[in-house]
Amino acid sequence: MQMNRRFFLHKGALAVAGTAAIPSFLVRSVLAETAGAPSQRLVVIFQRGAADGLNVVVPYREKNYYSMRPTIAIPQNKIIDLDGFFGLHPSLAAFKPLYDQGHLAIVHAAGSPDMSRSHFDAQDYMESGTPGVKGTDTGWLNRALQAEDLRHRCAGTCEQHSAFRALALGADVPLTLAGKVPAIALNNVNGFTVAGRGPTPSPAASAFEAMYAESGDHILHTTGDETFEAIKMLRDANPAQYQPTSGADYPNSEFGNAMKQIAQLLKANLGVEAAFTDVSGWDTHQNQGGVNGQLANRLTDFSASISAFWRDMGDSAENITLVTMSEFGRTAHENGTGGTDHGHANAMFVLGGRVKGSKVYGRWPGLSNEQLNQGRDLALTTDYREVLGEVVTQTLGATDLEMVFPGASLASSRFLRLV
Known about the structure:
Elements: E1 14-17, H1 28-34, E2 41-47, H2 53-56, E3 57-59, H3 63-68, E4 80-81, E5 86-88, H4 96-100, E6 104-111, H5 119-128, H6 140-154, E7 166-169, E8 183-186, H7 203-214, H8 218-237, H9 254-267, E9 274-279, H10 294-313, E10 320-326, E11 346-352, E12 359-361, E13 382-383, H11 384-395, H12 401-404
Parallel strand pairs: 2-9, 2-10, 6-12, 6-13, 7-8, 7-9
Antiparallel strand pairs: 1-8, 3-5, 4-5, 6-11, 10-11
Helix pairs in contact: 7-8, 9-10
């Protein structure tokens, strides 16, 4: 049977990523004895399409901001002030309580040092954690989990992990989670059933089971029952009638549903350590809008979904760190069609119980014409790997940062001290 390193079940409701056919990580005893809530969990959100950081976290004291954006700039009287210089787009109102409570931090002028303006290249570079290096076929988050394992082995401990240790909400395992540590991709936690273990098996589940029946691989056959037990465990722990707690109100959107399902999986204590999802719709070349419009609508969904997730997790939110990123920002000047084009630096959000929030981190480069990157973009002052390096060190205990981000030469002295 042909095995693809990144996708075990491609374009299906469940995928298992790894370098070999299903290994012993799905042993029933591991699921029974070690599944539970890890001390810290990491949630990663990728904003695909290049979000306009300058209208997301607005440097409203920069005079040039308004001269460069005559029709799409956010008026000062509409901005949600943060610190007297920066303010949130009004559609991010759901973020303000999190910021005020000290749970939400912002890193501005952050991103990849690679200068590519190609969505596909830039996304791959950020997900692989190797900007400018083509062909890296593993992701930074998978390597961070490997670094966690290496640290525990070096300490003389032996830690077992659940089948749900690393998961993505989506049809495929993303590059971010590709690598030696097995990862699961779920398109819909409530729609996956296995033949003989549910009323009607989904097409993806049927294909998943057929792989075992048709394969002559001894490992696949001997672990098949354990795999199906894992799927049954997932289904039983995430019933369709799930009700969010603490008054959490998720938007009825693709992203809102993804965040609700991540909350379900975390609260089910299945042993999730790292979760990933993405949200598209940020490529605003035309009719971007200002206070209202295309970007505003996306930001309302984005912030409401994340805020609902935080509320839904209740006390468990104290053990969660959530980080957002986008492949690059957008041009400082608006274009002739009321939009913005591919730019450079951007804004990242970091939310968590351990986060030192209520602050916009990073060195601000300015928006004067001579301060712009290539005369057109916000200049980069914080490599996104510095933010992620600090996050994985503090949450996963992944201290071998050369393993996680090869060639970045990260040092803790460069961390922003936001976690």
